[in-house]
Every structure is written in C-alpha cells, then in structure tokens.
Amino acid sequence: MSYTKSPRNARNSRRGKPQRFEDNDDAIELLESVGPVVLPPETESFDELDLSPVMREAVAEAGFTKPSPIQAALIPYALDGCDVIGQARTGTGKTAAFAIPILEQLDSLEDCRDPQAIIIVPTRELADQVASETARLAHGVPTEIAVLSGGKNMNRQLRQLENGVQIVVGTPGRVHDHLQRGTLRLDKAWCVVLDEADRMLDIGFRPQIERIMRKCPRNRQTLLLSATLPPVVRRLAESYMSDPTVIDCCQNEMAVDTIEQRYFTVENNRKVELLEQLLEREDPEQAIVFCRTKRGTDRLSRQLSRIYHGACACIHGDLQQRERDRVLQSLRDRKLKLLIATDVVGRGIDITTISHIVNFDVPQDCDDYVHRVGRTGRMGRDGIAFTFVVPGEGEMLTSIERRINKELIRDSLDGFEPPPTAAEQQPEPEEPVVEVRRSLNPMTRKKKRRR
User: Fold this and answer.
1) Fewer CB atoms inside 10 Å of the end CB: C or N, the chain?
2) What is the spatial distance between Cα 181 and Cα 215, in angstroms, rounded to a whole number?
C-alpha cells in the first residue's frame, strides 16, 4: 500500500518575485508585505485535511487526535505545492505540520534514490528529534531518512547517502560540508524546509543556508517555520521564496496561554540560594534551568548535584555530541529531574514532562526568552516559568514583557521579599526644622568700625 500522491505542479505555476519589504512598525503590515496572511481555520479532525488512509492511520498511531492550528492551516497549502511561511508559538506541533505533506508526496526509493526533501534545523538535538518524529509519522510505509549533523559519524552518513535516502534532516554546517564534498545531491529535492529559521540566522548560518538553497531546483517548494519573524527572516523569504502564503498562528501573543510566568528580584550573589529554595517549594516533575554561559552552567550544575546527586546534569555546546545525546535521553526517560543548560536546548526540544523553566540568567534577547519558556506548556499542557532579575536588569524585563504583550507576576520567598516599589513606599515624616543661630568665631569677628 502506498501514499496517495497529491499534485505538485502548483510549484510550477508561480508568479513573479514579491515586492520588497518596507520599514513598518505594524506587525500585520509587515507580514502582508511578504504575502497574503492566513489565520488558522477551525479543524476538529485530521479527516478534514484530505489525507491518505495510510497517513490517517499513522497519525492515529502517533497519538494525534485533533490538528493544532499550525497543522490545520499549513498542511493544505503544503499539499497544493505552495510556498508557506508559518509563524507559530513553540510547542504547537510544527514538525508534523511540514512532515505530513512531505511524506504524503514522496516517491519510493526505487523511483528516486536522491533526497526529495531536505529539512534544515539549527541544532543537532533538533535534527534528531525532527527525524524521529518524521519516522514515527511514516508508520506503515518504509521511508529512508538521513540525519546529517555535526558530532555524528561521517562514514555512516556517507553510507546512508550512497545507499539512497528520501528525506535529509540536517544542520546547515554539516549539510554544506556534504555539498562541498560532492556526497549530497539536491537536484531532485522538490521541497526545502527551514525550521526555526530565526535561530539559524541568529547564530550566523545565513551563508550556508543561501548556498544550500542555490543548490536546490528553482521550482522547488519552500516551507519556512519559526516562532518569530524578524526582518532578517523576512529578507531571506524575499530572496528565496515565490509568492509565499503567511500563516499567523501567534495572533499577537507570543507567550503560551497555559504557561504561568513569574519573576524574582534578587541580588546576584544570592541567586543560587534562591534557586534551591524555589526548587524545594515547587518540587517540579522535571525542570530546565537556563544559564547565559557555558562556565556558569558547569558551575551551577556542580552546586546542585550535591543536592540532586544523579538526578541533575548539564548540557552546553562544549560537550561532545555523545554526551549531549546521553543527557537528553536521560531527560526523556525521566532519569533526570533537573537539567542545567545554555540556549543550545532553547529551541525545538520537545519533552512534554518539563513542568518548570527557570531563567537563572535573564536572556540577552527577547526571542530567546520566548523559546526558553516554550520548553514547558507543550501541546496545551500547563507549565510555569520563573525569571531571576538582578538590580540593573529592569529594562531587560520590560523588553520581554513588551515582546510577549504580557506582564510577568512578581513572586517572593521568605528571605527574598522584593523591595517595595515607588508607589508602595511610605513617605518618611518630615523632621521639624530647628533654626540654628549662627555664632561667629571671636577671632574672626569683624571689629566695629571706628568713627
């Protein structure tokens, strides 16, 4: 039994290049400058999406009962071969939104041994997760998926590509490396997915992404998904997409409704003490504590390991890939209660048992805050996030609140009561003014003027 093929000739019937972006502070006008903006429809079942029987069975096997807004909106356009920009909050099922239409339209490996779809993601962990989710949705139909990311065995990747693959999931650096080696051919790739595009551009992958896009056919389909659409992402869309449809599932609210967000005001030298008391009060099922630096992550992990012993671990960019994979697998297996991490796990990592997020260090970028907090409250679950704000970081807190269009709730613990605000401070009673009579030094007193 094979998938029912959907026509892909819509990719060949596109109009000219979209107009150039204009500087405009209004978010809706900015999105409309890219292409027509579509809001997600009300869809109660995957049966309404015109999927093949095999895919409907695979979706049910994966545990999906009702399409999320991004899935309900993006899948029909992707099946029609349109270029799509999908803006959706993290944790809303974006992977399935682009994986389902790709799987529905794949040719068999016997018909095409070169990659037909390539999915570019910012991190190694996200590449593994996307490949795993795609393989799960391919239930019932043999599908060859290759993960091309750094830290993995190169010889194994070469063997996979030589034997033939249908879908490539990779990070920009390793995919570009294979293109330079000549071990990866993309001339048959009819679909390119840029997942978490804003993050890839933030960390400097634009040159590699542009070279990858130029290696793909001109009449390809391009799907760009992200939780935020800053100007640099819109410029990339302008250059490499044709008449894209913009799907806005954020509806002017970047924070997930099911996530309660609080903050503490604390001195920098008391943050560890506050964290220990907070974890004791909350007793989270599983929590991620975000730090700003790798050294700070290591130091905090060592301090908390004295309390949590084998239930605490850390992860950052300097760890070997094997160790990073081991830590994440332990978190998924619920062997870890506490993960201390940098922003390397701030994007796309989907572990539904994460109940608490703690921003031990306030992120430098507001969008990083959005993605950190999005590690909890996945797919409608409840979650809570705490942010430690030290004196002098008030402006950063205000920027975050403006970005998510929501005020964070001020929290407190015994011994960590927040200082009163200016409105709460009681004016001190004025002391009575006592007139002090000035006495002159007799030695400097002026003599009476003689007549």
Assistant:
1) C
2) 13
User: How many CA atoms are closer than 13 Å to the CA of 330, on its beta-carbon side?
Assistant: 17
Ordered structural domains, the chain, with CATH: 9-248 (3.40.50.300), 259-410 (3.40.50.300)
Q: Which two tokens stand for residue 351?
A: 């572990």
How far from chain centre, in Å, is Cα 227?
A: 7
CA distances from 89 to 132, 243, 365 (A): 21, 23, 16
Using the Cα atoms of residue 139, residue 286, residue 381 and residue 294 in order, give the sign of their dihedral: negative
Compute and round to an integer the Cα radius of gyration of the chain.
28
- Output the CA–CA distances (angstroms, integers) from residue 35 to 31, 84, 164, 287, in the order listed: 7, 9, 36, 39
pTM: 0.69
Model pLDDT for residues 142-200, shown as the tens digit of each residue: 999 999 998 888 999 999 999 999 999 999 999 999 999 999 999 999 999 999 888 88
